[in-house]
Write a structure and sequence with these properties.
Length: 262
């Protein structure tokens, strides 16, 4: 009996060791894939060359007209030759948010695919399918995963601290036609609300204002939800940007940062 018990115990130990080895191999493969994707994005970043000293600023306006095309805008066009779904580039100083922004036919594809259209657990930073770049719409609604590795929109949560906001108050977003800077208006925790919940701020439903009242309601709710007061003045028609990532403070939690063009 003792021999059988010893054999059984040894078999269990062997099985546990094999499981540990298999899980370790899976983790290693995933880690290498993530590192490969990070390297690819780093090379893409070098290719786009977004250093400030390569960009001629527009001294009169923060929205740069297509007639005053910058090097940054030209390189967005070059990226589109690789994937026409690349609609722009987002950058926030003080964070590692420095990525191409894609727009698919739905809001699902780029949750699981990178800018090369390859399957990827970390997905891409992507613009809502409802945003019309030709108009353009009022609010750039942009999503990204919150990864424990710190990639994608993980660093967005730094804006929970007012001190960080005060040191890094702006967001830069570039397309082939515009080079925009946004001042942060609001940062807050939220969630995806069920249809039955009433009197809640569904920030994710706002891309194009139906009216001036609709626009002003969005701004009022954004300010009210904010973790701190940014004292930003907004008028009807000002372009907006809304960045959204997951947060785990509640089920279906989200962290949101909203900016206004300046």
């Amino acid at each position: 009996m003792k021999g059988k018990s010893r054999n059984l115990r040894n078999n269990i130990i062997y099985c546990i060791l094999i499981i540990i080895i298999i899980l370790s191999c899976i983790y290693l493969v995933k880690y290498l894939v993530i590192q490969k994707e990070a390297k690819d994005e780093s090379e893409l970043l070098n290719d786009i060359d977004i250093m400030e000293n390569n960009i001629e600023p527009n001294k009169n306006e923060n929205t740069i007209a297509i007639s005053e095309e910058t090097e940054r805008m030209i390189k967005i066009k070059k990226l589109q030759e690789e994937n026409s779904d690349i609609v722009g580039w987002i950058e926030i100083e003080g964070t590692n948010i420095n990525y191409p922004v894609l727009q698919g036919k739905d809001d699902e594809y780029y949750l699981t695919h990178n800018y090369k259209k390859e399957k990827s657990e970390k997905g891409s930073i992507f613009l809502s399918k409802d945003y019309d770049l030709k108009l353009p719409s009022d609010n750039l609604l942009i999503y990204g995963h919150n990864l424990v590795s710190g990639q994608m929109f993980n660093n967005l949560l730094k804006y929970k601290d007012k001190e960080f906001y005060e040191k890094h108050p702006s967001i830069r977003f570039t397309t082939e036609k515009e080079d925009l800077k946004f001042e942060i208006l609001s940062a807050f925790y939220s969630k995806v609300f069920s249809k039955s919940e009433e009197n809640v701020f569904r920030y994710y439903n706002f891309v194009t204002a139906k009216s001036e009242k609709d626009y002003n309601n969005f701004i009022e709710n954004a300010k009210k939800a904010s973790l701190y007061d940014t004292n930003k003045e907004v008028k009807y028609g000002d372009r907006l940007i809304t960045l959204v990532t997951c947060s785990y403070h509640v089920e279906d939690g989200r962290f949101v940062v909203i900016g206004v063009v300046y």
